[in-house]
Amino acid sequence: MTSKHDYFKADCSKNEPEILVAHSNGEQFYRCKNCNYFGTIESFTKPFHTFEILQQH
Ligand SMILES: [Zn+2]
C-alpha cells in the first residue's frame, strides 16, 4: 500500500518518521529522517488516494 510519503518521495528507500513538532492541541508532525518529508503521522502510514490531493487545491 502506498502512503503519501511514498507517493511524494518515491525515491526515498526508507519511511522513517521522527516526531518534529507537537502542538498543545494534540497535533503532531513528523519528518522522515531519510528524505525530510514533513507531515502528520497519517502521511506516513495511511494509504494514499489520488482524490485527497485533488481536494487540497
Ligand atoms: Zn522518506
Can you characterise this structure?
It is a single chain. The chain is of the alpha+beta class and 57 residues long. It has one domain. It is 26% helix and 25% strand. It has a 3-stranded antiparallel β-sheet. The radius of gyration is 12 Å and the shape is flat. The N and C termini lie far apart (24 Å).
Give the integer mean of the pLDDT values.
89
- Ligand catalogue: zinc ion
Strand order of the largest sheet: 1-2-3
Strand content: 15-25%
Helix content class: 25-40%
How large is the radius of gyration?
A: 12 Å
What is the succession of H and E elements?
Answer: HEEEHH
* Overall number of strands: 3
Number of helices: 3
Low-confidence stretches: none
| Intertermini distance | 24 Å
Q: So what's the overall shape?
A: flat
Write the layout of secondary structure elements.
Blueprint: H1 4-8, E1 17-22, E2 28-32, E3 38-40, H2 41-45, H3 50-54
Antiparallel strand pairs: 1-2, 2-3
Characteristics:
single chain; alpha+beta; three-stranded antiparallel β-sheet; 3 strands; binds zinc ion
